[in-house]
Amino acid sequence: MTAAESQATPAAPPAATGAVLCEDGLARPPWAATDPLLRAYYDTEWGMPVRDEQGMFERISLEAFQAGLSWATILRKRPAFRTAFHRFAPDTVAAYTEDDVERLMADAGIVRNEKKIRATITNARATVALRREGGLAAFVWSFQPEETPEPRTVADIPTRSAESVALSKALRAKGFAFTGPTTMFALMEATGIVDTHLVDSHRRGSSGVWPKA
Questions:
Q1: What CATH number corresponds to the domain at position 56?
Q2: Binding residues for Zn(2+)
């Protein structure tokens, strides 16, 4: 989920394009201003560094499932996704068979999209193969840019970058699927590789990767 996409979540009035001062005295983007689940995710998880293989594989998987849907939908289904995909353990998912595809397609708790399910299995196998080159997390982080955006409003937040285009191309060359440039920019935002917190947000600079603007 890109920050710009998440801002489209009906969690705040459409006119609210800058940071919103919430009732607890903290400033957040519109998408994290009202919904308790999205607020908790924003305050504790979104934009924090993910440097382990399993965590990065889970994020890539969920970003792929989010395509065409709201992030709130995926977040609410995340516990079911974790159960259905064995907590996104790459070795386990890489060994899935057609029986597992049928099992997942019958699971009402997740998004039952066969192409995305099969892509997740494909990506698990590609993740295992990437261990020969230092691993998935290190590979994704190698595309960290030299600078990060400093958005003051939602309109200032990009949906892709030269680095996300390059990452998309590189992952596809390694056998990954559903890793388009916009999806990869969303991944980079969610895992701290770029910081697109609004400048006035209380979370700006909280990852420790980028200084507060």
A1: 1.10.340.30
A2: 197
